[in-house]
Amino acid sequence: MVPVNDRMPALYIGHGAPPLLDDPIWSGQLAAWAADLPRPRAILIVSAHWESAPVMLSASGAPLVYDFGGFEEKYYRMTYETPDATALATRIAGLMPDTEPVHQHVSRGLDHGAWVPLKIMYPDADIPVLQMSLPTQDPERLMRLGERLKPLRDEGVLIVGSGFLTHGLPFLREFRIDAAAPGWSSDFDAWAADALARGDVDTLAAYASKAPGMPYAHPTVEHYTPLFVTLGAATTPDEPGTQVIDGFWMGLSKRSLQVA
């Protein structure tokens, strides 16, 4: 991979469940966002739904992972066949130190935290896509991981952390796309929006003790912590990014970020 003229941004997105594909509002926002970005040569995405250490990379050409249940049959028949991403896998392995080895998975494809939003953003599936596992929940370690990946941005690679800014599924009282946001969700969202607007990485990293709405907003934190891969890949992590999407979906915050 060789440098390109325009550095790609890095993103943190809310990925939603498969019904996101049928939501005209949020899917329209994601599609419009992708249309405003430079066209990537490749995409590297870290999803909340693959927690594995050491760092693992998905296999090009492997079937999608349908890691969900209780939805319409059509979602289990969907495909997203992208070009071979072996060159990107080799490049990533070369960026990692001996203390952070990379293992190539031989059969795992993209999970719904990757293919659902990408199916909306890049529906032609004509860009190589690689998924990386989330090896830790420690913000500092994830920031360092994002920093190691930063050179890829100058080579046309779009780095994406895919999660959900609030994800208290056990505490939702209703499962409708237009459901009102519970207080714990709206409070956490407002707190995060303020910290992101100030570029306050330390506050964002101290979510367990400083964020309102915890632990309801994140009874487990894998949907929040991909944010730190994105922030680590930023040119200047404590510079405020652009909060491209906000609002709620099933009462959960879909706030999403773009960093330069």
Task: Describe this structure as you would to a colleague.
The protein is α/β, with parallel strands linked by helices. It has one domain (about 10-260): LigB-like (Protocatechuate 4,5-dioxygenase, Chain B, 3-Layer(aba) Sandwich). It is about 30% helix and about 20% strand. It contains eight helices and ten strands. It has helices at about 25-35, 85-95, 110-120, 140-150, 185-200, 200-205, 205-210, 225-230, and strands at about 10-15, 40-50, 55, 100-105, 130-135, 155-165, 240-245, 250, 250-255, 255-260. The strands form three sheets. A six-stranded mixed β-sheet has the order 5-2-6-1-10-7, sandwiched between helices. It has a two-stranded parallel ribbon with strand order 3-4. Strands 8-9 form a two-stranded antiparallel sheet. Strand 3 (about 55), helix 2 (about 85-95) and strand 4 (about 100-105) form a beta-alpha-beta unit. The radius of gyration is 17 Å and the shape is globular. Its cofactor is Zn(2+). GO terms for molecular function: dioxygenase activity. Belongs to the DODA-type extradiol aromatic ring-opening dioxygenase family.
Question: Which characteristics define this entry?
Answer:
globular, dioxygenase activity, 18% strand, 260 residues, six-stranded mixed beta sheet, two-stranded parallel ribbon, 8 helices, Protocatechuate 4,5-dioxygenase, Chain B
